[in-house]
Amino acid sequence: MKTKLLLASMLALGVHQTVLSQVDVNGYTSVNLTTGANYQNRVFFDLSANSIVSQPADSWDLAFYRNSNMSFGTRINDAQNVEVYQASNVASNWDNIDIANIASWGNPLYNPDQTTSLQEGAFEQGTATYGWGEYNPGNHHIEGKVIFVLKYLNTNTYYKFMITDYYGGYTFKYSKWNGSSWEPTQTKTIANGSDDAYFNYFSFTTGEKVANLEPPKANWDLMFTRYWTYYNNTMMYRMSGVIQNPNITVAKVQPESQETSTFSLPSSTSFSGNITAIGHSWKPTSGVHSDVVYYIKQGSEYYRMYFTQNGGASTGNMYFKYKNITSTLGITEVNKKASFGIYPNPTTADKKVTILFDIKEKANQKGNVEIYDLSGKKVYVAELTNQTGLYKQELHLSHLTSGNYIVKITYGGSTETKKLIVK
């Protein structure tokens, strides 16, 4: 059966794709996603809506975090193949920066890939308290202290750059090296604004903010793009792969059979908010790992995902399959504080079942799980934690005869029941 993926519309700079997906015998949707030759596009994918947004990857240079007035940060466009150098930590040295001194500026800075903060970029790696600036307790601004130079490796182009102030928006200045001297300094201010996106984007080419470069925050889960990583702990290397939305967590399992109708959800400690928890870990030098599976938690929804094709730079293809497994886990909300699920249900021959317990808010007392037969007799009882987090508890029910049972979960003053079939 073929299902058309809904294509989210973009008002500017969008490469629109209509993608056909196929559902396999295990209920997994095949997604033939491509970033284009040489990874020329940045592609956003929404798991719940089966939607794709694809855009030219090189239409911006800087991204400014705008999700909160109380938080700030930046990202360099890694698709542009940029290295960032701290040229000086003295703001008054702006007119004295000379690219002939680049060898004395230390190692280049990059957007970290091993972080849970999407807004922790290359400029945040500078030597000031906040990377590029210091907090002024008098006016509550972050004031710029560090001057950076951006080196574009593909074109051997240089820009001098400095964020001079942050307070509900970013004021910054920059100048382009023309081969013999710096061009006149340009100063810009980009307010955080009200866009439903994590970042505002800026282009040195146009000298302006670039609009509509990111879907609404709730409308994407995975971003297929380029990023720098410390490859094999030997050298910085620009990879292609997946950066995840801060709203999801991911657990990688290896080895695990990919094409299967049965599975076991990883423990809560396996789920990571690292922005590259998927990253490039699904692919070796060529092809894909055939024994790597990812479990994705998005609110109260769970997905299982694995990759099927790696086209490399020649095509930019990154094909994968995924399935919403929430119903398989039998997730039910007890109240706003917690939800729980039972799987497999019916049980398998070994009569082992797993209780999945997702605690969103701590309660005063611990919860408990009870199992009753249809006569009302209690045949099993166990205590559940009251600490926030995702937990699973394995129940060994070999002492129970085959038949129907009632599972009762109590937490935070509320009770929920489910039918359990023991084979």
Q: Could you explain how this protein is built, in words?
A:
This protein has 1 helix and 31 strands. The longest helix has 4 residues, at 326-329. It is elongated. The chain is mainly beta and 423 residues long. Strand 25 (338-343) and strand 26 (352-359) form a beta hairpin. Mean pLDDT is 89; it is low at 1-13. The strands form 7 sheets. Strands 9, 10, 11, 12, 13, 14 and 15 form a 7-stranded antiparallel sheet that branches.
Our estimate of the beta-strand percent is over 45%
Helical residue percent band: under 10%
Computed over alpha carbons, the radius of gyration is: 25 Å
What number is the mean pLDDT? 89
Q: Strand tally, please?
A: 31
Q: State the oligomer.
A: single chain
Distance between the termini: 32 Å
Q: Largest sheet at a glance?
A: 7 strands, antiparallel
Number of helices: 1
Apparent shape: elongated
Poorly predicted runs: 1-13
- How does the helix and strand content classify structurally? mainly beta
